[in-house]
Design goal:
about 290 residues, alpha/beta, Alpha-Beta Plaits, Rossmann fold, three-stranded mixed beta sheet, 9 helices, about 30% helix, globular, binds S-adenosylmethionine, protein methyltransferase activity
């Protein structure tokens, strides 16, 4: 594993950036790599890839793929420890995703002082922070928090509650989570207490529950569920969001991105960012209409 945390940034026109991203997707050495692609400057048609290698081999492979696309200019930055995103592959170590540090009971004592620390005991619920979909959501949220505040946040499919707890711990006044799995709701409420987070979790399917509607409209909706329910819930998620509000969606595979994106674009959302980790994708979509 690399000891130097790097961020590799590539900028260029959309076609070049998309082609470079596809080359990263095709490289089997980069199957586990995390990167995002977004439109940086709409007026200039400038797109940007940010990649976060977790080993020297990954860093080399990423730079090699990007170098094959002369239309993008590449910059490599060494990250301060507080910013890097790394997921070690041995055991179940803590996970760093932007400002968030997700850890279990066995990591007590290894907690950094410069992060938002989330203690998550998984039990029977999904969401220790180790899965590519959860990491994608946290990275997307961390980026958005650099520019925006989210007063009211809904987490559909809360699992351990990690996402709503992350919101409550970073200043959201309302952080509500739902799940169709009763044990997850109980575990999420316990995790909220454990983290002294003012987040609440209720047993409900989707968004058509009075307790969920009553707290809306939301500034941000997380939904880390599977692609078919993400498509099925697209209208409900739109209605739950205020105009200009953001949906962070995950649980979909990279290969399902087009289908899920199409459902949201047709409802007036704008795709702001895609984050890839392993075979998984996280999407940042803003309600424009
Ligand atoms: C992949 S886990 C995500 C857990 C956590 N939010 C995270 O990001 O790590 C998906 C969760 O969504 C729940 N779920 C699936 N479909 C749902 C629906 N229609 N409404 C509410 N919860 C749902 C599942 O029970 C599961 O706990």
């Amino acid at each position: 594993m690399s000891h130097t945390a790097l961020q590799i940034i590539a900028r260029g026109p959309r076609a070049d950036a998309e082609a470079a991203a596809e080359a990263i997707d095709r490289d089997i050495l980069l199957e586990g790599a995390t990167y995002s692609i977004l439109e940086e400057d709409e007026d200039r048609g400038l797109w940007r890839i940010d990649a976060f290698p977790t080993s020297d081999e990954e860093a080399e492979a990423l730079q090699a793929r990007l170098a094959e696309h002369p239309g993008v200019t590449v910059k490599v930055e060494v990250l301060a420890d507080a910013d890097w995103l790394a997921m070690s592959l041995s055991g179940l170590p803590p996970v760093r995703a932007g400002r968030f540090f997700v850890y279990g009971a066995h990591d007590q004592g290894r907690v950094p002082s410069n992060a938002v620390n989330l203690k998550i005991d998984a039990g029977a619920a999904f969401g220790t922070g180790h899965h590519g979909t959860t990491v994608g959501c946290l990275v997307a949220f961390d980026e958005l928090l650099k520019r925006e505040r989210f007063e009211r946040v809904l987490d559909v499919g809360c699992g351990t509650g990690v996402l709503a707890i992350a919101a409550a711990r970073t200043g959201s006044r309302v952080a509500l989570g739902t799940d169709i799995d009763k044990p997850s709701v109980r575990i999420a409420n316990e995790n909220a207490k454990l983290n002294r987070a003012d987040a609440r979790f209720v047993y409900a399917s989707g968004l058509n529950d009075q307790r969920v509607r009553g707290e809306g409209p939301y500034d941000l909706v997380f939904a880390n569920i599977l692609a078919p329910p993400l498509v099925a819930l697209s209208q409900d998620i739109k209605e739950a969001l205020r105009l200009g509000g953001v949906a962070i969606l995950s649980g979909l595979l990279r290969t399902q991105e087009r289908r899920v994106t199409a459902a949201y674009l047709s409802r007036g959302f704008h795709l702001e960012r895609r984050i890839h980790r392993d075979a998984w994708s996280a999407l940042v979509l803003r309600r424009m209409g």
